Amino acid sequence: MSAAGFSITIPDSWFEIELHPDARNAAIGSLVEERLREVPELREHRAALARVLRETARRAYDSGARFCGTLVAGLGGAVMTATVTVTIVDAPNEDAAVAQYLTAVPKRGPDSIWRQVESTELPGAGRVPRTRGVDDVTLPDGAGWIRSLVMQTFVPFPGPNPVRVALITGSSPLLALESELFDVFDAITGTFRFITDQEA
């Protein structure tokens, strides 16, 4: 049995973003207009909303993502964001037992980066490795970095000798919402499943 694709579900309040450069600007424009009709109080954030979605789509596409879902919501005068992407990557050294390559980073202070290595049970995939923590996410085009919450879950493709991994990454610069956002990332990741050749 081999995988022909995958599915993942995001909350209704999130956007699924078109990633391809030829289609994303028009798709994001339509997406924003649709969301403003549903949630008129976001209208004051219209320009920021479109800008964040375009930038998120560009970063996701440049990193090789196949799926990108994002939360963009007004919070007072600011815009809060969170993103979940799915990227298909080669397993390190063609070894899908990724856990042996993951390293923890101890927390050295209240504002430091840190990473813990753990595992989680996914329906249809079994127990898979995961990291969660705070890291500096590099911005495109040398624009710097932003300290962010990051959760990454590594799901080997089905088959006897998997050499590819679905990397599901949840990230957000909203460090103060660590517990809440990690719970959301965990819930979204829990909906991930491969679609087999027979189901496609």
TrEMBL record:
What is the protein name given in its UniProt record?
A: Uncharacterized protein
Source organism: Catenuloplanes indicus
